[in-house]
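#random but structural
TW: two for the price of one
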Amino acid sequence: MRTSSNPAFRNLPTSPGGYARFGDAPAGMAGGMFGGGGSPMPTAAADDRPLTVDDVVQKTAINVVLALAVGVVTAWSGLYVLGLLGFVVGLVLALIIIFKQSTNKFLVLGYSAAEGMALGAITGVFQNIATSPGGTSYAGIGVQAVLGTLGVFIGMLVVYKTGAIRVTPRLTKMVIGAAIGVVVLMLANLVAGFFVPGGMGLRDGGTLAIIFSLVCIAIGAFMLMLDFDQADQAVKAGVPARFAWYLAFGFMTTLVWLYIEILRLLSYFRE
């Protein structure tokens, strides 16, 4: 089975046919991937009905709408300090969901709400700059970023469904390697910023920064391809329907990445 660049999907166990099977545990992991107390997780037949594409679509849509609603309220409220709280809570919930591979809908919805709060605060800061005297015009940048993220999502879904680009082991390795590479560069740029103004120039709004953001968006788009493939394999494997929440969480992590990078790219052209 191909692994995904999305940490939420990377460790899914596989069936003999190569599809994700949530009921199996890797060697040496007691209690199964999702079971506790040393007992393996029930199979789909013993637990509930099999997962369908509609389940994944519906749960993902619920999380997206929730994140958007919380984001809009946060941006309009002016309580931008909530952004830091959102990022911290979102990170904690993400780690819990990933390491426990939890299907708890409240944890997933909590993650989406927290990220919506964080992204809404960031967007609100840009909008506030737009309304300040002599400030750069960032008006409407949030709507543009949302539309851009939606456009990438729909575009990559069409590419995946039509088979224009197929998810192969080689493509998977390339995407994972590229994702690791940009994260390392982001950290290096952050550290360099403490010693040199602008750091390595990856986030200063210049030509290199624009190119870097475009690369990050491209990687995020291909991460969506891998996410589509993982969800497709889970449906084919007939895993329990409740795992739609876990898959929705995986999509949300990629969409958050894309929104931030698209928002950042748009800001460069407003300076």
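TW: number two ↓
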Amino acid sequence: MALNIKKVLVSQPKPASEKSPYFDIAEKYGVEIDFRPFIKVEPLSSKEFRQQRISILDYSAVIFTARTAIDHFFHLCEELRVTIPETMKYFCMTEAIAVYLQKYIVYRKRKIFYGQGKPEDLVTVIAKHAKEKYLIPVSDVHKEDLFSMLEVKKINYTKAIMYRTVSNDFSKDEKFDYDMLVFFSPSGISSLLKNFPNFKQDDIRIGCFGPTTAKAVKEAGLRLDVEAPTPEAPSMTAALELFLKKELGDKKKG
């Protein structure tokens, strides 16, 4: 039995590994899965950064919440010809982010600290170094939970916008013939509506990951068909597979 869903657009970069569950799903259910981010990250120019009147060398520690932040921080330092002293301390949200620092610095010679993935874990680590002056590289669109926790602990920090999230526009001649769209952030929904102001959902299924994205789908007046994480589907791929399995089952019954 053929599925009604033949072509799925996943608004993320194509997985680097061939072992991604998306490829298994495509093969198992005979669906075509395209990967195309609806949003992309752009660096701020050194001129734009200077307008924030932040001098990187005034700080004794940097807090990184993502690998993207590390890339943009070091590229901007290079552009500004700022040499980071060996005494600089680095605080990262997770060990994986901390290890990524090796791309730019000699890891074992530096003071590097990390949490377990939650803002509160990282703040506990930071609070043990309360005398430091912290710089936090962020995107123009960012969550505030970490900053409010730092304020409670009276940590001296400055947010530095070093990159921005922009809509990854579709070209006029690009085909948009998908039976299902999968989103991972509210900005992905905004980008869809910017690219296709007359977008009509009709039979197109929409899936999303995370409560803020689900809220954005509903606020845009769209129908949400597949949601993750849930107890049955902790990941987007698990939710997608459950949905396709159910579709196939319903079709066989019909």
